[in-house]
Design goal:
There is one protein chain. By secondary structure, the protein is an alpha+beta fold. The chain folds into 2 domains: 282 residues, 2-methylcitrate dehydratase PrpD; 140 residues, 2-Layer Sandwich (60s Ribosomal Protein L30, Chain: A), CATH 3.30.1330.120. Helices cover 42% and strands 7% of the residues. A 4-stranded mixed beta sheet has the order 4-3-5-6. It catalyses: (2S,3S)-2-methylcitrate = 2-methyl-cis-aconitate + H2O. It comes from Mycetocola zhadangensis.
């Protein structure tokens, strides 16, 4: 890997394109390096993962709304069109709208892959716009593989170096550039065109983090889908010769100077050398549970405590629970956020999946986590749950914060230490570093786990033959022809989509 030094430049410095981060990202995207076998296997895993969580969300309101919008935008004259999760594959729409609808379906349950470093991210959000464009232009499975490898590489590298949340900017500001870069790789575009697309994608996808604060709305699922849609449109404009604001990162009125660390900021962005394989997807990890990633290890620890310490399950036995954890966990999903909504039994599902006090309470009481049942209003309102929930707080611990930011994979951690004080005065202390499904966890996810997750989530909404067809198709990804790439979708069983009413809007 090489390091790109990033700082703000005054206009009179006239920073040349070759010195700009957007140009460096475009050079990575244009590098025709082959995808390694292990990266290929992981990309297949993540396409399965995305389809699994999309299947589980097909009838949820945000997904229904996004799908109905997409279906109102039929295929354009410039290509074959793209498929949308749910309808038959023969129903095609314009690629940017397929990216939108499928992106919402993937993101709705907060149940797909993650990478955490200086910033947060769900790099699997790159896949919907890339698949949509691939289907539209007639790309092959091999082309798609190369594009997805780039999307993951660019997003992970940006996330390692540049914090957005510290300045209340939503993490999808790294997704717009990564998706545009991935599309550029897949289409074999030149550096200049990809550079312009990256700049436009970044410029149009910077927004505040209020979408993940307080009473969290349905926009949480739409935000990354919007970034993917903007990336598709940015590539289209760049291919037509349209240019973007520059230097988009380094300009004195640019993103860094006014949205991030300011005019004196510097960053060191790791990027692959020319000819170096794009392997960043291997640094990311998926979710066994439908909840914010920083809750994954805590769910596993709560399940363990449920099974090993029945005394904790007696009503009124617990006086207090303190989760000693990282800065990010404390301030984003913990009591350090100072969001009263995180303790509100009437809060939205989106809010509850960003409340570690709620999640730990339910996982401890139930010994399990379910993507629907654990969030139901009835479950949240149980008196014994509300009572214990209000006894759970978080505290930042310097060591867990250090481990969260560690560059050493062997010590990087997303958990913490729990201290439970019982009403009889006794205490119980335990800790967990990473989730069971993490590559270094107790039960690392492998291909069979991704397939099992897909089957579990798809069986209620897909017919058995459709489940087998999809799994057979996706596992042949490197050899898929352009015609076969249309099979990277899922068709709902008869009656599933008809059971929910599509909302009316403008389109």
């Amino acid at each position: 890997m090489k390091t790109h030094h990033l700082r703000v430049h005054r206009s009179e410095e006239n920073l040349v394109r070759e010195g700009q981060l957007a140009w460096a990202l475009a050079e990575v995207a244009a590098d025709p390096v082959e995808v390694t076998p292990e990266v290929t296997e992981m990309i297949i895993n993540r396409i399965i993962d995305n389809a699994a969580v999309a299947a589980a969300s097909l009838t949820r309101a945000p997904v229904v709304a996004a799908r109905s919008q997409a279906l109102a935008h039929p295929v354009t004259t410039g290509g074959n069109g793209s498929t949308v999760f749910g309808p038959d594959a023969a129903r095609r729409v314009s690629p940017e709208w397929a990216a939108w609808a499928n992106g919402v379906a993937v993101r709705e349950l907060d149940y797909h892959d993650t990478f955490l470093a200086a910033e947060y991210s769900h790099p699997g959000d790159n896949i919907p716009p890339l698949v949509a464009v691939a289907q539209h232009v007639g790309a092959t499975g091999k082309d798609l593989l190369r594009g997805i490898a780039t999307g993951y590489e660019i997003q992970v590298d940006l996330v390692k170096a540049i914090s957005l949340h510290a300045h209340k900017i939503d993490h999808v500001a790294h997704l717009g550039p990564s998706a545009a870069a991935g599309i550029g790789t897949m289409l074999g575009l030149d550096v200049e065109t990809i550079f312009q697309a990256i700049g436009q994608a970044l410029h149009t996808t910077t927004a505040t983090r209020q979408s993940r604060k307080g009473q969290i709305s349905t926009w949480k699922a739409h935000a990354p889908a919007f970034a993917g849609k903007m990336a598709v449109e940015a590539v289209d404009r760049a291919m037509r010769g349209q240019t973007s604001p520059e230097p988009i990162y380094e300009g004195e009125d640019g993103v860094i100077a006014w949205m991030l660390d300011g005019p004196n900021a510097t960053y060191e962005v790791p990027l692959p050398e020319a000819g170096e394989a794009k392997r960043a997807i291997l640094d990311s990890y998926t979710k066994e549970h439908s909840a914010e990633y920083q809750a994954q290890a805590w769910i596993d620890l709560a399940r363990k405590l449920h099974n090993e310490h029945p005394e904790l399950l007696v009503d009124g036995a617990i006086a207090s629970v303190v989760l000693h954890t990282s800065h990010h966990t404390h301030y984003v999903i913990g009591s350090g956020a100072n969001d009263p909504q995180k303790y509100d039994p009437t809060a939205s599902r989106e809010t509850l999946d960003h409340s570690i006090p709620y999640i730990f309470t339910v996982a401890l009481q139930d010994g399990r986590w379910h993507h629907v049942d654990s969030y139901s209003p009835e479950r949240a309102a149980r008196p014994e749950t509300v009572e214990l929930w209000n006894k759970v707080t978080t505290q930042e611990d310097a060591e867990w914060t250090r481990r969260y930011h560690s560059h050493d994979p062997a010590e990087k951690a997303f958990g913490g230490r729990v201290e439970i004080t019982l009403t009889d005065g006794s205490t119980l202390v335990d800790e967990i570093a990473v989730a069971d499904a993490h590559p270094l966890g107790a039960r690392p996810f492998a291909r069979e786990d991704y397939i099992a997750k897909f089957r579990t989530l798809a069986e209620p909404v897909l017919e058995p033959e459709e489940i087998e067809r999809f799994l057979t198709t996706v596992q042949r990804l490197p050899e898929l022809t352009a015609d076969e790439l249309s099979g990277l979708t899922i068709h709902a069983a008869p009656g599933v989509l008809a059971a929910v009413e599509s909302p009316k809007g403008l389109f």
